């Protein structure tokens, strides 16, 4: 009797194991991001997006930093789900209207909107490609158009169903962060310190505003006339000339004073010369835990490009929605279906 009972238990366990294994095998492959996700859905989607992005790029260079920053701000809040693109309504203040997102360039939004329109103009593709995936592809394309590396983008994201201004609070890295704060901020999104240093290299493109760093060039530490000692003295004077006292806080300044329109490793060379615009930039070269990586990439653009691609790929996986209960494909990127 005991032997028969044990035999029945063993059979039950075997059956449970078999059912579990079968259920895992039956999981749809779309639950995972993958390259060429749209090969049978919208075969030419990447070339369609690239053409739209290239046209926008030819109209204004702001397309590049605007799109790249939009992708980062999107992924770091609710995951890479295009929730940052949703417009506020009378009943909901959306992500894009949080103070940390008010400086996002309109050209970034417009790039995705125009690419989405180009994709949806193809009948086979209409309402089949998510805004989140279009943003991911457009980001890769602006990097390439500005001289950076091209890379295969993993696709299969759905667009998020929630977007609130409050959800942004505390999610994005700040220009005053030290290395521990930066590392912890990125770790919260499953990204390593190396990923953080690589993604910071995107500051080789685009611009910031005087109000974001004025405390470093005027009355630093509450001392009248003092300049942050971690800042190159000549560079500080150049910044003061571009951002005189009482200038509007939204006056734009190039992040990279040397090659602001080219994606390259100049950012790390700037840090070596104490020309990091933000405290959060300069600390990467000044802290011994990160300075070796900065020095390595300052002298090796190939190594930086490879690290950047790896970091962008991991960033693109943050908080993605791949099931209908969590997301869908928006007909209009700025409005929930």
Report on the structure:
The chain is mainly α. Helices cover 47% and strands 3% of the residues. It folds into two domains: 45-172 and 317-328, Peroxidase, domain 1, CATH 1.10.520; 179-315, Peroxidase, domain 2 (Orthogonal Bundle), CATH 1.10.420.10. It has helices at residues 2-25, 45-59, 63-78, 106-120, 131-145, 179-187, 193-200, 214-217, 233-242, 266-272, 279-286, 288-299, 301-315, and strands spanning 159-160, 207-209, 252-254, 327-328. A two-stranded antiparallel sheet has the order 1-4. Strands 2-3 form a two-stranded antiparallel ribbon. 39% of the residues are buried. The model is unreliable at 4-9 and 11-30 (pLDDT under 50).
Short summary of the structure?
The chain has 337 residues and is mostly helical. Helices cover 47% and strands 3% of the residues.
Which descriptors would you attach to this protein?
47% helix; Peroxidase, domain 1; 337 residues; Peroxidase, domain 2; globular; two-stranded antiparallel sheet
Radius of gyration over all CA atoms, rounded: 23 Å
CATH architecture title of the largest domain: Orthogonal Bundle
Strand tally is 4
Identify low-pLDDT runs.
Answer: 4-9, 11-30
Task: Describe the strand arrangement of the main beta sheet, using strand numbers.
Answer: 1-4
Topology, element by element:
Elements: H1 2-25, H2 45-59, H3 63-78, H4 106-120, H5 131-145, E1 159-160, H6 179-187, H7 193-200, E2 207-209, H8 214-217, H9 233-242, E3 252-254, H10 266-272, H11 279-286, H12 288-299, H13 301-315, E4 327-328
Helix pairs in contact: 2-4, 2-5, 3-4, 3-5, 4-5, 7-13, 10-12, 11-12, 12-13
